[in-house]
Amino acid sequence: MKKALYVWLLVLLPALSFAQTPTAKDKAAVQEVERLERQRFEAQVKKDYAFLEKAFADDLVYTHSNGKQNGKTDYIQSIRDGKSQYEKIDVEALNVRTYNNGQTAVVNGTITITLPPTADANPNLAHIKYVVVQIKDPKKGWQVVLWQSQKQAK
């Protein structure tokens, strides 16, 4: 019995030592990243290129739900060229976790993207699950360094 207790303590103690109570700095970072996520989606719809230039890091890796990857310049250009079009982006779920003393954020969520109507005028919706990694640059603020998404059945 004692041996089993020792084994559990050996397993649990290291795990518990990594568990931290979120600090005020962490909570503030979570709120800021949540706000920026919503603003970024809005900027993609409104084609606010100035905001997108600031929101995306120069070394961005943007992986679409079809597997295609873009860097920052290519992705923003795809919006300019009409290859990436968004009528509306609705946030259904959003979860932000911070690391590295509130300097790194991992975001996962679910969105519904309303795309421009098809030729037959049917609604064109994409239900997406995604993961984003954001890093807080001391000079530029929060920036997206990674976007990964996949379509989900609805």
Automatic annotation (TrEMBL):
Coiled-coil regions, chain positions: none
Keyword Lyase recorded: no
Pfam family membership, one: DUF4440
InterPro entries: DUF4440, NTF2-like_dom_sf
Signal peptide: 1-19
Keyword line: Signal
Residue ranges occupied by any DUF4440 domain in the UniProt entry: 33-144
Protein name: Nuclear transport factor 2 family protein
Species, as recorded: Hymenobacter aerilatus
